[in-house]
Design goal:
Helices cover about 65% and strands about 0% of the residues. It is built from 50 helices and 8 strands. One of its GO terms (cellular component) is SCAR complex.
């Protein structure tokens, strides 16, 4: 072989291109196999019933399918020929790519054999590695091709459609069909093909013997060798980690194993003739049951070997009896060793310079063990030792790998500064000396090596400081070329005769990668993108980790691994990109959701514990303590032994033994572990999507409802007091606020969002909130009972009070409606919630007003006459008996008064809370309200009153009531009729009031400062409804209220005249006085014109006297 031909073969370039091309073809075959094996993704016509006969015919006749004369069998193909060509073109061209790839591989392997190249992983590392990679890649492509069940149908159907359209078959079809037939039994054909290449393959594999034996050790051997330990020999801690062939140190054991098993499977003749080959083969078999072809497609090597080798299996097979235990022990060792390594490098990142090789060795070993576990967990289904194929502590190993990757990325400049000096000040000088000492150095090789020295000598630290981009890809390709030139038989310079050149250049290659290919090297040694294709084991390992409390802090490793999946894409198969992207994001999202869910559950459980502690401090629990203190002071007997003694608040903090672990301790421990996981990284990227783990926890907490704290039972209408719920809520929020020391989430934002949701009718998930629950309960549970007389409003106590009745169980209304509860309710619901409550109350008021207007309409004629003649007793005597439903009017007005009284109490609670929270806002609002005069424009007045009402300030005219009643206007009635109806309603109420005197429940109570049947609520109803109605119609409120008093005074006389108040027992004038007191439009002087003050004074005296008589003891 002439010298120029050595350089013209371009082995380095061809091996580089063919390996990349082979990887792309392999991924395309994998994609076709996966697509066609899933009915949901395979071409549509492959699943159609009408196409089944055609597919069977093509498979039967393949490759000799006559598209012209077989119209009976290929009719469906003819109908859809255009669609078939369109859909199957990419499939067909992929098979053509396989054929072309095979041709180029044949040509290159034959040329290498003809050139008598020698391979030694320790001498010409790049040449040997790429050669073995090509052999394994080619074998994997052929094996995967043979696993595509529909390959004949795909190729044959495409060719038939092509012939139907073009008139002739595809030019590549004949050779392609022949290739497919040849590889029906792929291993048999492959062994025949590799017969001529057996010598080259065997020599390359035998060069791995020393390396494989040295690196494929048990965990015990690794431990005794202090593998990965930087502190085992402190004297060499700062010495650079080095080797004759640096790349061999972090070369994947899985890759070496695959080279050995695949190579000897193809060239098995040497196993019986060469003991060293047999020894290496057996060593390779002992490690795994399955070797990977591509991704999750694996070769069950022992089964294939036994079937293929037949009678020779006893001699050349070696069942891996303890491979599971071997790898389990390795993972346990690596967890400890890498933990120590990571801790040391984190503390002293400067060690990354001299010890960078240790990092990549650790990453490579960990990656191999993780991939082994994944591969076998997926494929090994029946085993006596399932613990060998499941690891609940795998998360720690994954986490440590991520930590090492992060250290390399974070301290890249440290590594660069070290190695740029190493290259310029040591490697360049050493290489120059070796070149000068070479006895034979042809011109071409001399030029290449001289360029190496000049390139390295020109490196300076300033390039690192200026953050210049290094690129040594040309230098590495030249070294690859030089290996190819000097590894052929007749080359003038033999690389194996100059081992120093290889040793130094391998060192230089590693150092150069530390400058320009750090990320690529990290990916090469620690890429875990295989998880993308082992979804089931991936999820199972995550589930095992979540069940292990000590591993919770490492769970973030699982979402972080999803960022690796982008590395498994290839430019030759862009169609799988969307699937890989969705799979990556889906897995990442599901893992983070589960972590956040667990953390949120833990937080809510801790909040519940805090609430229990907070409940112990509620005032209602101090009664027993007070009672016990009084009994002790009075020297009474202690309680019986059967009564359990209640612990005092704070007793839970007293512990005699620290070993005793409380539930709160467990929750804090679990929360700390999960928080470490969530806070590990602020964000990371998965397929161009930025993922923020803390946001998952925030979103979970924001959707958690506090409704359960209300303990609402719709069936029994039982509910917790607002003050108790508020106390519990404060304990919840205090704990969530303290999460700032655990997590990096914005606890203030979470609290704002959660509380804001509770002020709305429905939360973000469409569930009822505290606002809705308490609004419904106060309307249905409290005010409805008030309308039946079971609950009475007590102005003296400023609360609703339950009236005990025999045989009925009633709750204490005062416990839910006093000042403190209204204040707590306002704080719980907030301004939005209080407005929702107000709107619902107004809806019930308007429904009562609608019914009142109907009653007015029924009595329209009589009421018109009464209004015109109320000062004429003789006519009133005849008109009053004609009124119907007078008691109904009073009942509905009383209900309105109860609703408005409750709203007034709620507003006062809101006002107090608002004053405490925002005094700087309350002052200006009150000042603005004081500027309103009767002469102010009504629109301006209502706007100011609306602002004041929102702050809880009471106003003369209720804007919410005005708005609600103004919406009652109907198109059929004119404004004049509506105004007339409003006036007559006031007349109706005025002439009906005397009826209350005959009600036996119209009894005034000094203690409550009200009547037993809530008729004192009429005052608020009359004043506010009339003010709202006449504001709507733009009339003078004071004038109409004066008219009301006049009609009321004359009506009282008329009722006595007709004898309707014969059974009158209630004092006169007290209700009228309440009306005047309620209204800012009426005065006592106005009342004096209708009801002399002496009547009012006598009424109060009579009530007081009756109260005193009732308190006297009976004789």
């Amino acid at each position: 072989m002439s010298l120029p031909s050595i350089y013209q073969h371009k082995f380095a370039e061809k091996l580089t291109i063919l390996n990349d091309r082979g990887k792309g073809v392999l991924i395309r075959m994998y994609n076709i196999k996966k697509t066609c094996s899933d009915p949901r993704s395979k071409p549509a016509f492959f699943t159609e019933k009408t196409m089944e006969p055609s597919i069977k015919y093509i498979n039967k006749k393949f490759p000799n399918v006559d598209a012209r004369s077989s119209t009976q069998h290929l009719g469906p193909v003819h109908k859809e020929k255009a669609e078939i060509i369109k859909v199957l073109n990419s499939y067909y061209q992929s098979f053509v790519d396989v054929m072309e790839f095979r041709d180029h591989v044949y040509e290159l392997l034959n040329t290498i054999d003809a050139s008598q190249c020698y391979f030694d992983i320790h001498v010409n590392y790049d040449l040997t590695k790429n050669y073995l990679d090509l052999v394994v890649t080619y074998t994997s492509v052929i094996l995967l091709l043979s696993r595509i069940e529909d390959r004949k149908a795909l190729i044959g159907m495409y060719n038939c459609a092509h012939e139907m359209i073009q008139g002739s078959g595809d030019p590549s079809y004949a050779r392609l069909a022949q290739m497919v037939l040849e590889y029906d039994t792929p291993l048999k054909k492959l062994t025949e093909e590799f017969g001529p290449h057996s010598k080259a393959v065997t020599s390359a594999l035998l060069s791995l013997h020393f390396l494989f034996v040295r690196r494929n050790q048990s965990a015990e051997q690794w431990r005794s060798d202090q593998l990965l330990s930087l502190i085992s020999n402190s004297a060499t801690m700062l010495s650079p980690a080095s080797s004759d062939v640096m790349a061999c140190e972090y070369l994947s054991l899985e890759v070496i194993e695959r080279w050995i098993l695949t190579g000897f499977l193809l060239c098995h003749g040497c196993l019986s003739s060469n003991p060293q080959c047999l020894e290496l083969w057996k060593l390779g078999l002992q490690g795994s049951l399955y070797i990977s072809l591509i991704r999750d497609d694996a070769l069950q090597i022992h089964k294939v070997t036994e079937e293929f080798f037949g009678s020779l299996k006893g001699a050349i097979t070696c069942p891996p009896l303890h491979s599971g235990q071997l790898h389990r022990n390795r993972r346990a060792f690596l967890r400890n060793a890498v933990r120590e390594l990571e801790a040391l490098l984190s503390d002293q990142p400067g060690l990354l310079g001299p010890k960078a090789l240790c990092v990549f060795v650790a990453l490579s070993l960990c990656r191999d063990e993780v991939n082994w576990l994944l591969r076998h967990a997926e494929h090994v289904t029946k085993t006596k030792t399932p613990e060998d194929y499941a690891d609940s502590h795998i998360a720690e190993l994954l986490f440590l790998m991520e930590q090492l990757r992060t250290l390399v990325h974070r301290h890249g400049p440290v590594i660069q500064r070290y190695h740029v000096q190493y290259l310029a000040r040591f490697d360049a000088l050493l290489l120059s000396d070796i070149i000068q000492n070479l006895t034979v150095c042809p011109e071409e090789e001399s030029i290449i090596m001289s360029s190496f020295v000049s390139t390295l000598s020109s490196l300076t630290l300033k390039q690192v400081d200026k953050k210049e981009k290094f690129d040594f890809s040309g230098l590495r390709l030249d070294w690859f070329r030089l290996q190819a030139y000097t590894s052929v038989a007749k080359a003038p310079m033999q690389l194996r005769e100059s081992p120093d050149v290889g040793r130094v250049m391998n060192l230089i290659m590693f150092h150069s990668k530390m400058l320009d290919s750090l990320e690529e090297l990290v990916v090469e040694t620690s890429d875990l993108s295989a998880f993308c294709f082992y979804v089931r084991p991936f999820e199972k390992l995550f589930a095992l980790t979540m069940e292990e409390p000590a591993m919770l802090r490492f769970t973030i490793a699982f979402p972080l691994i999803c960022s690796h999946f982008a590395h498994c894409t290839h430019s030759m198969c862009p169609e799988e990109y969307p699937h890989l992207k969705s799979c990556s994001l889906g897995l990442c999202n599901s893992f983070l959701e589960e972590i956040a869910k667990q953390a949120a559950n833990c937080i809510m459980d801790a909040c519940a514990e805090q609430r229990k502690l907070s409940e112990q401090l509620l005032p209602k629990h101090c009664a027993s303590t007070i009672s016990k203190a009084r009994n002790k002071k009075a020297q009474k007997q202690p309680p019986k032994k059967g009564e359990p003694e209640r612990d005092k608040p704070g007793a839970e903090s007293q512990r005699k033994d620290r070993i005793v672990v409380t539930n709160m301790d467990k929750l804090h421990q679990m929360l700390s572990e999960l928080s470490l996981s969530i806070n590990h990284v602020p964000s990371f990227t998965v397929f161009e999507h930025t993922v923020t783990p803390s946001e998952y926890l925030s979103s979970h907490l924001e959707t958690r409802s506090f409704v359960l704290m209300a303990s609402y039972n719709q069936a029994t209408q039982e509910i917790a007091r607002p003050s108790e719920v508020l106390a519990g809520l404060r304990s919840y929020l205090a704990f969530i606020q303290s999460l700032g020391q655990f997590t990096c989430m914005d606890s203030s934002r979470i609290i704002r969002n959660v509380l804001l949701q509770q002020t709305q009718p429905l939360d973000s998930s469409g569930e009822q909130t505290l606002t809705t629950i308490y609004t419904n309960w106060y309307l249905e549970g409290l005010l409805r009972q008030a309308s039946t007389g079971a609950i009475v409003l007590s102005p003296a106590m400023q609360a609703f009070i339950s009236v005990p009745r025999e045989g009925e169980q009633s709750f204490s209304a005062e416990e839910f409606s006093d000042i403190s509860e209204m204040r707590a309710l306002a704080e719980l619901l907030g301004p939005y919630g209080m407005k929702f409550l107000s709107d619902n109350l107004m809806w019930h008021v308007t429904s009562q007003v609608v019914e009142l207007k109907k009653l007015v309409t029924e009595n329209m004629d009589v009421l018109v006459q009464i209004r015109s003649n109320f000062y004429k007793p003789e006519q009133m005597v005849s008109l009053l008996p004609r009124l119907t439903s007078a008691d109904n009017v009073l009942k509905r007005m009383t209900i309105i008064g109860e609703i408005l009284s409750f709203r007034s109490m709620a507003q006062s609670g809101l006002c107090e809370v608002f004053s405490n929270r925002c005094p700087f806002l309350m002052g200006p609002i009150e000042c603005l309200k004081d500027f309103v005069t009767p002469d102010t424009d009504i629109k301006v007045t209502l706007s100011i009153f609306e602002l004041a009402t929102a702050a809880g300030i009471a106003c003369d005219i209720d804007p919410a009531l005005v708005t609600a009643l103004s919406n009652l206007k109907t198109d059929s009635s004119s404004p004049e009729e509506e105004y007339k109806s409003a006036c007559l309603l006031l007349v109706f109420v005025a002439v009906s009031l005397p009826l209350l005197a005959s009600d036996p429940f119209s009894v005034y109570s000094i203690e409550m400062d009200g009547y037993s049947n809530n008729i004192h609520c009429l005052a608020k109803a009359i004043i506010h409804v009339s003010a709202a109605l006449f504001t709507i119609h733009g009339k003078n409120i004071e004038t109409h209220l004066k008219e009301f008093l006049l009609v009321r005074g004359c009506g009282q006389v008329s009722f006595h005249t007709v004898g309707l108040c014969a059974r009158c027992t209630a004092p006169k004038g007290m209700l009228e006085y309440c009306i005047v007191e309620e209204s800012s439009f009426l005065t006592v002087d106005m009342l004096e014109t209708c009801f002399p003050y002496v009547l009012l004074r006598n009424a109060y005296r009579e009530v007081h006297r009756a109260f005193l008589l009732n308190k006297l003891p009976a004789h």
